[in-house]
Amino acid sequence: MLIGLAFGIFVIVKQRSGSFPPTGYSDRYYNVVSCLLLVFTILAITASGFAYAGNHQSLKRTIELKNSIVETGEDASETIQRVVKTLTGIQYLLHPYEPYKSFQLNVTTHKLGNESRTITSFVQQSGHSIDKAITTSYVVHLVVVTLNLVLVVAALVLLLLHWHPGFIIIILLCWILTTLSWLLTGVDFFIFTFAADTCSAFEDFVQNPQNNSLSSVLPCVDSSYSTQLLADIGFTISGAITQINSKIGDAIWSLGSDDKEVLKFGMICDPFTQAPNYSYAPQLCAEGAIKIGDLPNVLESFTCYNQDSAESCKNEGKFVSEYNYYKAWAYSGSIQKILDIYPDLRSLAECTVVKFTFSDVMPRQCKLFRVAVKRLWSSMLSLSIFMVVLVVIWVAKACQER
């Protein structure tokens, strides 16, 4: 750029002082320069058109990719918030009967809440920063290419009008814009390389989440740990339901009933498979089995409230105390709430949201994004090369026209 500035100043000074020595040019030389000027002018205009298209396409694909990644963070935050809300409800249910477990849930809830706020803050700040970077890049490319195109056309017009001073100024300005075009070409090449590396990291993460460069920045636990965690949850809930069903069976037999249908109706649905996996499969529940959350409705008709006399409760077969009823209501409600959010817990433990998004981003959006950035980079590279050659031809033409 400095060389171009120096040359422009030199030509203007020489032009004003009239100190150029007279030089003759053959018609053949004149025709060659004119043909080259016309060819590279057309090439520069064509490259500008491709740069326009590449800039618009790159903007579109970048926004799509950014939105997919931001939506992933928002989905993860919403999932955590649902879990936090449920655990808070369980905490209040268990507090009168299990103060220590309620305290543990309170600690867990606060940790999850902090994670949710961190993700939300990161998504908002990153989203705004990325939007600014995308807009700035698009506007700079648009301005540089537009000015360059205007100056190329203006140079052609000034040549036809034989206005030499204005043509020299155009050469000077185009040299500056050509320098900016080379800078943008370097930036585009960096973005293309970064996009290729990022998309490769997405692909590797989908295939091997643990041994990947993204594993240190994504909220995904070790797969073996998450599998064991989910199995422990299933084991605990399944064991609790088995004990409840056993007590229900004992109670029915103690009442002297041997009706199999009555016994079957009183069974609580166990939505987990057997050891060792304890997978969540609610469709395996027997027909007529009741949900754990509906247990208080079953016990209500067998509950002896404090205002009822012991004799009337005995005569009516009400053998469950009011305290035990509300305790069962708290425990069954807690278990039901955990079952309701179990898909969310599994999604967080297995990093399902992130993996699903990356498996969608990697094969489809990433490919389109890389192609768009490569087109922008190649078009800017072509435009920069054509403009360097065109400026040199303009210099030769200026020497002819003087």
From TrEMBL:
Lineage top rank: taxon: Eukaryota
Transmembrane segments: 29-53, 138-161, 167-192, 376-396
InterPro entries the record matches: DDB_G0292058-like
Cellular component aspect of the GO annotation: membrane
Keywords: Membrane, Transmembrane, Transmembrane helix
Protein name, as recorded: Uncharacterized protein
Protein species of origin: Dipteronia dyeriana
